[in-house]
Amino acid sequence: MSDVDHYLIYRAQKFITAANVHEVNTWIFCYQMFEPDSPRRKRYEQLLREFVGTKNLTLGTRVQAELARDRRINLRALSTVIDEQIRQFL
Predict the structure, then answer these.
(1) 44 by DSSP, 3-state: which?
(2) I need a labelling partner for 9 at 20 to 30 A (CA). Which of 25, 55, 61, 72 fits?
(3) Helix residue ranges, H only, 1-38
(4) Cα–Cα distance, 31 to 23 (Å, whole number)
(5) What angle do CA 61, 63, 65 make, to 5 degrees?
(6) Is residue 13 part of a domain?
(7) ∠22-41-43 over CA atoms, to 5°?
(8) Is residue 1 part of a domain?
(9) Is 25 part of a structural domain of the chain?
(10) pTM for the full predicted model
(11) 37: helix, coil or strand?
């Protein structure tokens, strides 16, 4: 189990859900068990890195969408206040 990227495993485990628990745990197990220079080890490491990268992108996109939604809600509320003030002047 030399040269195992423990931080990669930690990050992969953070994204485990009920839907993917068996698949991801199998990748982690195989990654840890194969020899460091083994093509299979490299393949499982690649799977884990792609999994973590995809989940990070998805999480980042979700956060950006939530920020944009919150901004839209705030702008809509401000717009409503301004509309009411304009109506008072007319």
Answers:
(1) helix
(2) 61
(3) 6-14, 21-33
(4) 12
(5) 70
(6) yes
(7) 75
(8) no
(9) yes
(10) 0.73
(11) coil
